[in-house]
């Protein structure tokens, strides 16, 4: 069926391959950014399940009860409050201070992997020790070993003589890769009761092995905890509850990206449709002869359908393979693109220098001076790859199926009458 149709099948195949390749690379990079944000939020800030309020005299019993539930990975008590921090530089910076146990790295090993220390290490053995985010420390002009003064905003309401003012020694400077935490977070020892106001209720964050099983495990935790007397006032919530709007926005963003880039397949499908309709006109005599010797409508349509399926499968396969290769090596790929563009810029600067024109600057797709990242993240998800492949494959089949309707309606008598 390719014969006599020019370059249409080739263009259709290249169109499907390009669409599949583009979608896989774009969605993989988007997954890298989105999952990085989601995992940072769940592993550092909000946890998978929260229990509050928690009474300190029953904390040990509650933690043992929670850890007894299958699927629970870690249970970490914490407190948090808002404060104003002052360093060497003039001015103050708002900080969210979270109080955690001094053995947090043992209780929650995943958090240990998320906190990358540029200076010092996780050390809050002393109640006057503090860990600062890298961007916060840079904003305050401080480093490991320096002191920072913090004024608890909630401490104004407490009855402390110092009014919530305290000085801490910086034991570590951490970086998470998530700007909000690096710019406005600090960790202190949860036992520093003099700095926590009375209204800062103790909470417990629970982490599970599979965050998508939060509903089932939440129900198990709830039944287990409420079966023990003294825990009747605890409120249970999952990450879907207190991050609903943010995660919903991420899902919507990904859906619209699928739709926008998926428009490529509509254009390719129209190309295949027109190509097949043109083939029907060119093959009227052959189709009429096939019908005359007993070929049914469905058999005639299947000829064109197999043609479209071949184009769709081959194009989607080529696009998928190239897309997976690029998405798996996204950093070298972007570096290659930057080098190519910068080579042209260098040639332009060389030519423009002969005429005394101003030189153009270098090009970077994701410049660290603009974007808060050191490398471009990419995360390939099997379900996304399968859906994208099916998009490309089925778009070609559907276009061929609709185009073959005209071939099925050709009557042998009408064609052979003029032969």
Report a brief summary of the structure.
The protein has 419 residues and is of the alpha+beta class. Helices cover 53% and strands 17% of the residues. The chain folds into two domains: 8-36 and 264-416, no CATH class; 45-246, no CATH class.
Structure in words:
The chain is an alpha+beta fold and 419 residues long. The chain has two domains: 182 residues, no CATH class; 202 residues, no CATH class. It contains 15 helices and ten strands. The chain has a six-stranded mixed β-barrel. The N terminus is likely disordered.
Strand order within the widest beta sheet: 2-3-8-5-7-6
**Share of helix among residues?**
40-55%
Q: How can the largest sheet be summarized?
A: 6 strands, mixed, barrel
Uncertain runs: 1-6, 156-161
The gyration radius over C-alpha positions equals: 31 Å
Overall tally of domains: 2
Beta-strand share of residues: 15-25%
Order of helices and strands: HEHEEHHEEHEEHEEHEHHHHHHHH
Shape: flat
Number of helices: 15
Structural class: alpha+beta
- How many DSSP E strands? 10
Mean model confidence by pLDDT: 79
The end-to-end span amounts to 22 Å
